[in-house]
Amino acid sequence: MKQFIDFIPLILFFIVFKIEPRPIELFGYTFTLGGIYSATAVLIIVSIIVYGAIFLKQRKLDNGQMITLAACLLLGGLTLAFHSETFIKLKAPIVNWIFALAFLGSQYIGKEPIVQRLMSKAVTLPDAIWRKLNIAWVIFFIICGAANLFVAFTFDSIWVDFKVFGSLAMTIIFMIGQALYLSRHIKEEEQPSNSEE
């Protein structure tokens, strides 16, 4: 569910980006609605609202949410300040690669890999399986970052579509693959206990 909440600012970014740029008047000021720069402003504002609401409800943000928000504020702010879409195009690759580094680092630092910390309350697996699953997430984040970078700087006309729908599709496909992988190992774990009864 948390991953889909993270898509709310991105979906609104996509909607505003697709609007044909037009001037609007608000509080006596004229703004342009539509296009990359107003979409970036919406992304920043909605991210602050969404993560602010999560913080007020939970009294904290998890590390992934803090990284996403910080990247949005920094790279979105640079996009608006320098009027260059290069910075916002780098957001998805940088965030994905930071996640990849964090998951990889957790293989060697701390008692458990990140994926085990996130899922161990719901699923019981041997340490070796948790480590394999954690590495799968590392590979997933590296591929997502590389795909976003490649599309953003190679196919300018579709990079926002890919950022929203391509990233969502990759996440859903990976989650389905993870569920299938977990179901196989959960059955394997349950079988010995059934035979003992």
Strand order of the largest sheet: 1-2
Secondary-structure-based class equals mainly alpha
Helix content: over 70%
Strand content: 5-15%
Q: Sum up the overall morphology in one term.
A: elongated
Termini separation:
37 Å
Architecture overview:
The chain is mostly helical and 197 residues long. The chain has eight helices and two strands. A two-stranded antiparallel sheet has the order 1-2. α7 packs antiparallel against α8 (159-196). The relative contact order is 0.09. Residues 193-197 have low confidence and may be disordered.
Topology, element by element:
Layout: H1 2-5, H2 7-18, E1 22-26, E2 29-33, H3 36-58, H4 63-82, H5 86-105, H6 114-119, H7 127-154, H8 159-196
Antiparallel strand pairs: 1-2
Helix pairs in contact: 2-3, 2-8, 3-4, 4-5, 5-7, 7-8
In short, what is this structure?
With 197 residues, the protein is mostly helical.
Keywords:
197 residues; mainly alpha; two-stranded antiparallel ribbon; 2 strands; 77% helix; 5% strand; elongated; disordered C terminus
